[in-house]
């Protein structure tokens, strides 16, 4: 069964619209395209797993994560990043007030997963693993 990014966006936005404990402006087309592309690769995290990580690390229950909360959430999701990479991700995915909403959190982790899985494929292809 195939789903388009537009269809996924509609479904995801209906789901998160019912949630009052998670803040988002809705899933962007970019995030949904990334999710659709990752379905072909290997989606390690289910949406419920990502939601659990997000909620666990939203320590102040604001519905968004601060940058320190985000660092711990990345580790919980299996990504230990150096400061430079972390700062680049914060600059790319956080709002002007330096918080990250659920849509941007999912989009960021999906892209990280895609990059890491592609890098691992390249290493296997070159017999480095």
UniProtKB/TrEMBL annotation:
Keyword Calcium: yes
InterPro entries, A to Z: EF-hand-dom_pair, EF_Hand_1_Ca_BS, EF_hand_dom
Chief location of this protein within or outside the cell: cytoplasm
All residue ranges annotated as the EF-hand domain in the record: 45-80
Gene3D superfamilies: EF-hand
Subcellular localization, as worded in the UniProt entry: Cytoplasm; Endomembrane system
GO terms of molecular function: calcium ion binding
Cellular component GO terms held in the UniProt record: calpain complex; endomembrane system
Superkingdom per UniProt: Eukaryota
Keywords: Calcium, Cytoplasm, Membrane, Metal-binding, Repeat
Name of the protein this chain belongs to: EF-hand domain-containing protein
Organism: Acanthochromis polyacanthus
């Amino acid at each position: 069964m195939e789903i388009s990014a537009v269809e996924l966006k509609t479904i995801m936005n209906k789901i998160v619209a019912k949630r009052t404990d998670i803040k988002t402006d809705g899933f962007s087309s970019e995030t949904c395209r990334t999710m659709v592309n990752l379905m072909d690769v290997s989606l390690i995290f289910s949406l419920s797993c990502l939601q659990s990580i997000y909620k666990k690390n939203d320590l102040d229950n604001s519905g968004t994560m601060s940058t320190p909360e985000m660092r711990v959430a990345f580790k919980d999701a299996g990504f230990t990043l150096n400061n430079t990479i972390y700062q680049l991700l914060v600059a790319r995915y956080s709002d002007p007030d330096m918080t990250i909403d659920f849509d941007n959190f999912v989009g960021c982790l999906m892209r990280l997963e895609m990059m890491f899985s592609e890098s691992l494929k390249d290493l296997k292809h070159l017999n480095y693993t």
